[in-house]
Amino acid sequence: QVQLVESGGGLVQAGGSLRLSCAASGISFSIYTMGWYRQAPGKQRELVAAITRGGSTNYADSVKGRFTISRDNAKRTVYLQMNSLKPEDTAVYYCNGRWSTVYDYWGQGTQVTVSS
Predict the structure, then answer these.
(1) Where do runs of H (alpha helix) occur along 40-110?
(2) CA 58 and chain centroid, separation
């Protein structure tokens, strides 16, 4: 059974930091591209950051320079370090693991709320 379990969300003031974690089980973690997406109320889900099996990363323009994605294959965990948070970063953040269009899995999401 595949599970992606996010943690680390919460309430933080603008300018603060949070670190999200996503622990994976049931997949060959090291071969998967792992990503973080977010969905704010009334908006579509959007890619925040992704990291490939080889360690290449890409970020949404809105978070470049503030967020950092990383992975620990030994721990089967992907992280999202979020600094200089803004109210517009408020959303439910979802972890995604993708190897192909068939092997594409989601976590349950974790709420991040940034107060002004």
Answers:
(1) none
(2) 12
pLDDT in tens, 48-101: 999 999 999 999 999 999 999 999 999 999 999 999 999 999 999 999 999 998
Measured between alpha carbons, how far is 44 from 59 in angstroms, rounded to an integer? 17
Q: Around Cβ 42, how many Cβ atoms within 10 Å? A: 5
23, 96 contact by CB (below 8 A): no
Give the pair of three-digit tokens for residue 114.
């940034």
Q: Which two tokens stand for residue 4?
A: 């992606």
Instruction: Give me the long-range contacts of 23-26 (CB less than 8 A, separation at least 24).
Output: 23/75, 23/76, 23/77, 24/76, 24/77, 24/78, 24/95, 24/97, 25/1, 25/76, 26/1, 26/2
Judge whether 112 and 18 are in contact, CB under 8 Å.
yes
